[in-house]
Amino acid sequence: MAERVDFWATLTDPLIRQNPVTLQILGICSALAVTTSLATALTMSVSLTVVLTLSAVIISLIRRHIPESIRLIVQIIIVASLVIVIDQILQAYFAEISRSLSIYVSLITTNCLVLGRTEAYARHHTPLPAAVDAIGNGLGYSMILLLIGGIRELFGRGALFGWPVMPLADAGGWFTPLGLMLLAPSAFFLLGGLVWAIRSLWPDKTEAPEHTPLPRTRPAE
Amino acid sequence: MADPDWNPWRRLLALPNESRTKTILVAFMVASVCALLVSGATVLLRPIQDANRAAEEQIRIETLVSGIPGMADLLAQAGGTLSTAVIDLATGQATTAVTPDTLAAALADTSNWTALSSDADIAGLGRRPNFAQVFLLRDGADISLVLLPISGMGYGGRIDAFIALRSDMNTIAGITVTSHSETPGLGGRIEEAAWQAGFPGTELRDTAGDLRFAVARAQASSPYEVDGITGATRTGLGVTGMVRFWLGPDGYGPLIQAIERGEF
Amino acid sequence: MTDLWSLFLSAAFVDNMPLTLFLGLCTFLALSRRAESAVGLGIAMTGVLGVTVPLNWLIYQGLLAPGAWAWAGMPALDLSYLALIAFIGVIAATVQLLEMLLDRFFPAIHAAFGVFLPLLTVQCAILAGSLFMVDRGYDFGESVVFGLGSGVGFALAVVMLGAIRTRLAYADLPAGLRGLGIAFILTGIMSLGFASFAQMAMSQ
């Protein structure tokens, strides 16, 4: 008897409550590298969501017939093929963005998020719930990527999607861009800050302290 | 007892997942379907990719030439088309063996490339094609502009560009970058007009004939340098190596000498 | 470019995989909670990278690169679009093989570090090593050095983070920062430190 799947919850849970990047620690590999500009972040988000959804549907369709011994490699091959097709499409129609994404689109193949969701969800559900779950996770991932990409491009170059929002000092404006925003560490700091904010707002998502000090029995010196 | 199912497909699906037959068949089918999908997509899309690339290059060359101060008038005089030739890099002469249409096929053959020793390979290319398609803008009988395709390794991958030289074959008239994989906002600024505007007027060789061109670390401090990009030192080094290689003896050196001798 | 030593240094420090290129972060953050697991991961990464990058070079040059089939009379055949699938297959097979070899001939080592090997099949950093090798056109020697250098750089970063996080077990962090949050901030600070290596320009 099929369980009744709550589609709305499946779709919206991964947005905040079960966000793949900040809470499930999935998919950060390729995430941060493409957040130097909103255009690349958006392309990456769309590519990953498409690959995630298609692979979830395909694997869900054949889930009953995958032998255990080749399970992982079958999933990887399906994901890799989809990634190659997406990469070719990007090279054909969005050549410039494809060049700045370089190898990171290909790295969607080993993105923990894609394989994590197919292992955890798509293999055990029918195609429609699997697709909804995939879209939900893709949206959650995209939100984080676009947020960080937006902040980095805004403060690193004074622009969003290439459109100047804060006129640069070099061009006669008032904004001196923060060079750090274009370098790697800023993405880590931003993501750390984001995780901190989310976990402070939803305290049930925090991790338990690893070591609880013993209660004091003697007054301090 | 049910009758044996004669439908082979349903029999296959009914096999236990762990049976050897099913494992092999599932593996084979997944592999074939994926191979078909991937190859089909590539074969279908490759002509579009090539066409897009060719169209982009055409536009960039036209923008490059019309953007160079003083050249827009010459371009109008010459009717807006450049003459082109495929030259043999080793001799610096136009070759009849390869035409612009057959150039791509000729370069797919590895025997039409020359390997480079590590001392000579300052652009990081490993090997150099034996043929290249160059563009010449003529003012009457004299050559007023030469457009040379160049490439080299930058920080994130290969940089492809066109460099335009003035009639003295020593002053750069302009540069345009057709493809790169540099970091957007840092090395990626080599594609911006603002940075490329530093190239016109830059000289390549000093009076002794030594190649002095370089992308400076910060501000250009001599007529042979262009401003660098802050935070993109490696990209700048890549561009320096690229220009020096192609305008040196292993690149277009023989062609430049041939033009100076008036053979074009 | 062909100076192998500077290639090793740049792969390990300048282009550090987790700290500069954001590669392999999933396992980097997950396994750096304790210094012991960090050391195991580092050694496994170095071994697998050092083996798979040259191996993939052989496969690429022999079968997939444009012109690789010239000996069979098909010089225009360009199978480079299959590189991704081929590399993943090779990596999965290599990891499996390494695990079996370790188990058979060095059971003590397998008990200590072998559990990390299956994780590495789907590590972005390992695949990225091979993809960079194609992108940058390395030859065989450079592939070996690049693979080993990247692995050493990864090992260095993960061991350092593991050591710091072990100490942090006794720190009184704000609840929201515990675990993942502070790991990101720490990685960011380490990345800032490694960014200073970017000025190490390679000799022309």
Structural notes for this entry:
- The complex is a heterotrimer of chains A (221), B (264) and C (204).
- By secondary structure, chain A is mostly helical.
- Chain A has one domain (10-202).
- Helix content of chain A is 56%, strand content 2%.
- Chain A contains eight helices and two strands.
- Chain A is flat and about 60 Å long.
- Chain A starts with 6 loop residues before the first helix and ends in a 20-residue tail after the last helix.
- Chain B has 264 residues and is an alpha+beta fold.
- Chain B has two domains: 1-54; 68-260, no CATH class.
- Chain B has seven helices and ten strands.
- In chain B, the strands form three sheets. Chain B has a six-stranded antiparallel beta sheet.
- In chain B, a hairpin with a 4-residue loop joins strand 1 (83-88) and strand 2.
- The mean pLDDT of chain B is 82.
- Chain C has 204 residues and is mainly alpha-helical.
- Chain C is 66% helix and 0% strand.
- Chain C has helices at residues 4-14, 25-30, 35-64, 83-105, 107-113, 124-135, 140-168, 180-195.
- In chain C, helix 1 (4-14) runs parallel beside helix 7 and helix 3 packs across helix 4 (83-105).
- Chain C is globular and about 70 Å long.
- Chain C starts with a helix and ends in a 9-residue tail after the last helix.
- The interface between A and C is large, with 53 and 49 residues.
Using the CA coordinates, give the radius of gyration of chain A: 21 Å
Helix content of chain A: 55-70%
**Tally of extended strands of chain A?**
2
Q: Which segments of chain B are poorly predicted (pLDDT under 50) over 5 or more consecutive residues?
A: none
Distance between the termini of chain B: 91 Å
The neighbouring-strand order within the major sheet of chain A is 1-2
Helix content of chain B: 25-40%
For this entry, what is the oligomeric state of its chains?
A: heterotrimer
The spatial strand order of the largest sheet of chain B comes to 2-1-5-6-7-8
**Greatest interface (CB-CB under 8 A), with counts per chain:** A-C, 53 and 49 residues
Indicate the proportion of strand residues of chain A. Answer: under 5%
Largest sheet of chain B: 6 strands, antiparallel
Label the structural class of chain A.
Answer: mainly alpha
Number of structural domains of chain B = 2
The total count of helices of chain A amounts to: 8
